[in-house]
């Protein structure tokens, strides 16, 4: 068997792939050996004597399983953590989440007229001042305020 390195290299450039992906048909070695021009090699590629092997890829299956588990809190234990809790979930992000939820709730309550505009404004300012821990706390305070107003 002679050296077919040149044929492989030229075929790789025609097939637009790497040299290692070029497959030469062992049955047609004599024809491949005789092919010296790019045109000859193109003919052999059309006949199927020379082919590009399929690309090898890394399976994402295991990664998908991991991501699915992380979505509901698994694989997030202390051994997995690198940053401080403040780096993983900054206080500012937590505040933004909380204030948006509070303001959304206040807006809904105002729009459905369960609170009037003046109480909405008072509670809005208190929320901005950080007076409420969460929506349940806000609702409890509104009930107290409404009870006082009666």
Short description:
The chain has 150 residues and is mostly helical. 60% of the residues lie in helices and 4% in strands.
Secondary structure blueprint with pairings:
Blueprint: H1 5-15, E1 22-24, H2 29-34, H3 38-47, E2 50-52, H4 61-71, H5 85-88, H6 91-111, H7 117-128, H8 135-149
Antiparallel strand pairs: 1-2
What does this structure look like?
This is 50S ribosomal protein L19e. Residues 51-91 are annotated as: Disordered. This protein is mainly α. It folds into two domains: 5-52, 50s Ribosomal Protein L19e, Chain O, domain 1 (Orthogonal Bundle); 89-149, Non-ribosomal Peptide Synthetase Peptidyl Carrier Protein, Chain A (Orthogonal Bundle). Helices cover 60% and strands 4% of the residues. The protein is built from eight helices and two strands. The chain has helices at 5-15, 29-34, 38-47, 61-71, 85-88, 91-111, 117-128, 135-149, and strands spanning 22-24, 50-52. Strands 1-2 form a two-stranded antiparallel sheet. Helix 1 (5-15) crosses helix 3. It is rod-shaped, with a radius of gyration of 35 Å. The chain starts with a helix and ends with a helix. The relative contact order is 0.07. The mean pLDDT is 94.
């Amino acid at each position: 068997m002679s050296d077919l390195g040149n044929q492989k290299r030229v075929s790789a450039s025609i097939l637009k792939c790497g040299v290692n992906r070029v497959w030469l048909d062992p049955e047609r070695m004599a024809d491949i050996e005789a092919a010296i021009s790019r045109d000859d090699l193109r003919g052999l590629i059309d006949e199927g004597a020379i082919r590009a092997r399929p690309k090898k890829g890394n399976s994402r299956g295991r990664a998908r399983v991991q991501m699915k588990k992380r979505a509901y809190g698994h694989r997030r234990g202390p051994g997995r953590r690198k940053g401080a809790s403040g780096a993983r979930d900054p206080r500012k992000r937590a505040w933004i989440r909380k204030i948006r939820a509070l303001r959304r709730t206040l807006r809904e309550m105002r729009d459905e007229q369960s609170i009037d505009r003046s109480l909405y404004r008072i509670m809005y300012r208190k929320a901005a001042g950080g007076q409420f821990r969460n929506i349940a706390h806000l609702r409890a305070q509104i009930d107290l305020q409404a009870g006082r107003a009666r």
